[in-house]
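Translate sequence into structure tokens.
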Amino acid sequence: MKLFFGEIHHETAILNEEESHHFAKVLRGNEGDLVHVTDGKGNLAEVEITSISKKAVEGKVVDLKVNFEQKNYYLHVAIAPTKTMERLEFFLEKATEIGIDEITFLQTFHSERKNIKIERIEKIVQSATKQSLKAYLPKVNDLTKFNEFIKQDFEGFTKCIAHCEADIERTPLRTVLENNPQKILIMIGPEGDFSRDEIFAAEDHNFTGISLGHQRFRTETAALQAVFAVDWGLK
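Result follows.
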């Protein structure tokens, strides 16, 4: 059964404009069809389509699951965009499938990319959410300067910065996860890693330096390794 984004009320659901067009014009759906609808906030409804118009597709809620497959943790990954967008898009797709709650893009000293197309990224995340039948749509934040990001108030978060500087103290991520943090933020740097000044600045703002293992990863691989580790360690 296909999944669509829309508004879910007590007994009815309405697909958003783009999803309505896809259902009616691309899939050529009909009244009486059964579909899944999510609001991206944890609600997942089984819906029987009752009305198809040019502006909206509406239906009757047959079954509603609240907080569908809600995780017991909140994961926020802040990542420096890769030079090749295909690699970044691969991370976005797979991280969404595994389970991630929020993504921020960082502009760092060694960043290879200074701009991103946020609308395209949101579509990739939405598509991955639908393909993996998830009811929570990850929040996507636009490109943010590193020094501005670390100054934000991440109340209740265990804050981590993954880096490769062997002479600067690092804690294995698995050790951090042993404390069962409910909310965790992990920063992943560009191919040239975070600068030493950035690492020290992050530590001054209560970020813990972490390692992801003995191997040296590319940016998107390191980010996926972190997502896998958190999912395995906290689920």
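Note: The domain at 3-65 is CATH 2.40.240.20 (Ribosomal Protein L25; Chain P).
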